[in-house]
Amino acid sequence: MVERASNRTQAKACATMILLAWCPCASALNPSLDINQYAHSAWTVREGFFKGRVFSIAQTPDGYLWLGTEFGLLRFDGVRTFQIPLPTGAHLPSDLISSLLVDRDGRLWIGTSKGLASWKDGKLSGYPVLAGHVVDALLQDRQGTVWASVRAQAAGWLCAIQGSSVHCNGEDGSFGLGILCLYEDRGGNLWAGANSGLWRWSPGPPKLYPIPDPEPRGLIEGDNGTLLIAMHGGIRQLVSGKAEAYPLPGVAGYFNPISELRDRDGGLWISTGDRGLLHLHQGRTDRFDQSDGLSSNAAGRLYEDREGNIWAATANGLDRFRDFAVPTISVKQGLFNAAVRTLLAATDGSVWLGTGDGLNRWNNGQITIYSKPRSGSAEGGVGSLFQDVHGRIWVSTLRGVAYFDHGRLTQVSGVADLIAYSISADESGTLWISGRTQGLLRLFAGSVAERIPWARLGHREAATSLLPDPLQGGLWIGFWDGGVAYFKDGQVRASYGVGDGLGEGRVANLQLDRDGTLWAATEGGLSRVKNGRGVTLASGNGLPCDAVNWAMEDDAHAFWLYMPCGLVHVARPELDAWVTDSKRKIQVTVFDSSDGVRTRALAAGYSPQAVKAADGKLWFATGDGVSVIDPHNLPFNKLPPPVHIEEITADRKKHEASSNLRLPPLIRDLEIDYTALSLVAPEKNRFRVKLEGHDPDWKDMGNERKAFYSDLPPRSYRFRVMASNNSGVWNKAGASFDFSIDPAYYQTAWFKIAFAAVFLTALWGIYRLRLYQIAREFNVRLEERVAERTRLARDLHDTLLQSFHGLMLRLQVVDELLPPGRAKEQLEQTLERADQAIVEGRTAVHDLRSSTTITNDLAQAVRAVADELGIEGSPTFRLVMEGPVRDLRPILRDEVYRIAREGLRNSFTHARARHIEAEITYSERLFRLRIRDDGRGIPPDTLDAGRSGHYGLSGIRERARQIGASVDIWSGVGTGTEIDLRVPGTLAYGKSPGRPRLQLFRKKVG
Question: CA-CA distance, 100 to 68, in Å (whole number)?
Answer without folding.
Answer: 7
